[in-house]
Amino acid sequence: MIFNKDTAEKTAELLLQINAIKLNPGNPFTWASGWRSPIYCDNRLILSFPAIRNYVRDEFSKNIEKQFGKPDVIAGVATGAIGIGMLVAESMGLPFVYVRPEPKKHGRQNQVEGFLQKGQSVVIIEDLISTGNSSLLAVEGLREAGAVIKGMAAIFTYGFDVADQNFKKAKIDLYTLSNYQNLLNLAVAKKYVTEKEEQTLREWNVIPSTWGV
């Protein structure tokens, strides 16, 4: 679920402007999972653009407090959400930790890095939601560390049904600055894509795991 429509449209436009999101229906990308995709999202680019990272920080800060209430701690999911998570924590005047999808294989074998007390409330920052599996592994790690999860806030979601099911099963409320539907509507309105490309992009979003196979 998006925080609000205006933020969703503005965020989508900014992500397209800096090529954090690339649409290429004619020459699809291959994800690490092996899925073929006409879209690729790299929200880490946001950190290189001060005005845009500040916008994302401010939208997260005000909407997190409005939607979830002020938590005790902000947690960023490694590695993509560490930078923006720190900015949000600083803006809200809160402690920050980051969490891996799984514990380190060496040293203290930590999954959560930073100071976190059992019983503290946490809002998790994520950069991108696809199936939600890696994000929810981070949730499990925080719960095992004793955190009370108020919810997760992400920059962008592809809006897959499987992600909705996974978050519902984990009993985690997910809110995002933008999503695939708002992105696609904007891309069509601003002529980033043709009508034929729009159809391809919509078809992919319905069954992404077998698209283009």
Characterization of this structure:
By secondary structure, the chain is α/β, with parallel strands linked by helices. The protein is 41% helix and 22% strand. It has 7 helices and 10 strands. It has helices spanning 5-17, 50-68, 82-92, 133-144, 161-170, 180-189, 195-206, and strands spanning 21-23, 29-30, 36-37, 39-41, 73-77, 96-99, 112-113, 121-129, 148-157, 174-179. Helix 1 (5-17) crosses helix 6, helix 2 (50-68) crosses helix 3 and helix 6 (180-189) runs antiparallel to helix 7 (195-206). The longest helix is centred in the first third of the chain and has 19 residues, at 50-68. The chain is globular, with a radius of gyration of 17 Å. The model has no long low-confidence stretch (mean pLDDT 94). Orotate binds at residue 130. Belongs to the purine/pyrimidine phosphoribosyltransferase family. PyrE subfamily. Keywords: Glycosyltransferase, Magnesium, Pyrimidine biosynthesis, Transferase.
Give the neighbour order of strands across the main sheet: 7-6-5-8-9-10
Number of helices: 7
Quick one: how many beta strands? 10
**End-to-end Cα distance:** 29 Å
Classify the helix fraction into a percent range: 40-55%
The ordered H/E elements are HEEEEHEHEEEHEHEHH
Instruction: Identify the quaternary structure here.
Output: single chain
Rg, Å, rounded = 17 Å
User: What is the typical, i.e. mean, pLDDT?
Assistant: 94
Regions with little confidence, pLDDT below 50 for 5+ residues: none
Catalytic activity: orotidine 5'-phosphate + diphosphate = orotate + 5-phospho-alpha-D-ribose 1-diphosphate
Cofactor: Mg(2+)
Pathway: Pyrimidine metabolism; UMP biosynthesis via de novo pathway; UMP from orotate: step 1/2
InterPro entries: OPRT, Or_phspho_trans_dom, PRTase-like, PRTase_dom
